[in-house]
């Protein structure tokens, strides 16, 4: 038995697996980028962990659930992959066979928070990248019957979109519908393609995009920290807004664009107001599952796409949305790249300007990844402005170290849309962080009823554009 921090106990079930592939390969571009970010973030690298949950119909017993877990471990190479040579340039090493210890936790029938507690525990502890399997799994039972599956992932093994295919395969295994499925794509095959002549040609085109874009952007979106940093330095806030769950789809529908474009445009408009930069450089996380070889790959494919918003002379939000749509398409086209090429471009541009050049400004849209409530929980038949009083602003656990200055995450929440902001308080005090979240909400709620004029860049006197 293992004692949990919350006073509960679990037993461990051994799941023995024998995979369909094994061997070592270079890191993929996505894995290389995450490994670099992990190195810059330690000891807070747990920040990159994430969890997925699957509610289980109460018609499956524990042996069936464990068999489904065994199936996905054997099917998806990334779940059996660890790193070797982490003191230098590591390789990924897939094991042909092994054992994963799955936690089985009996919870009270009315306990709706047990899964969230397990997910929090899994996400808050860093992985041993050489010794530990890159997934942690718990089966929550009620009255001895499996009710919920919680999976905690190392970001080297998967990203949100990729784990959607993993959950699909778990459901198929539980229902006995796996016969005839084609083999799952393998990260090791992708790594070898990316090192091939064809892969290098694409990498060179992506590097040329970064080079052109870097010549257009500010030195950084947040320059010359003028504030005494908080302790810990990297603070985190979350705004949970039912109003945005109504406003954002309505604005997107009226303007015939995606909701992601609307949110990205709002982030750019508010950042222009705060920083005074007419050209906003955003590192938007791209899913990069376009080619057939990557479409259903369970691995980390997401990378930072450089989206450059030319907002000079843009006075209304609807125009900002149109500009953002075009800029996002250009950025996402080259959202898959070799980070070693990007590092070379960044170093060359920094040398040309005589100072370090990098946006240090990230935006990540995690909605639709199965983390929140269904659409039926979103309020209907009500104006977003009437829901503002239900908005909650929460302080989350801070970080000691992060490789960015501004990280904005959009996510699902029960009956609401969540915006989480992590920021370097040496550049953005906690009060400014709260203002940015509230102003993003205000702008989008106002846009529900029509076009909204944008603020004059830097009018608040906070900006220090370079």
Automatic annotation (TrEMBL):
Q: What's the superkingdom here?
A: Bacteria
Pfam families referenced in this protein's UniProt entry, alphabetically: Condensation
Question: What sequence ranges are listed for the domain Condensation?
Answer: 23-294
User: Which InterPro entries does the annotation name?
Assistant: CAT-like_dom_sf, Condensation_dom
Can you name this protein?
Answer: Condensation domain-containing protein
Q: Which organism is it from?
A: Kitasatospora herbaricolor
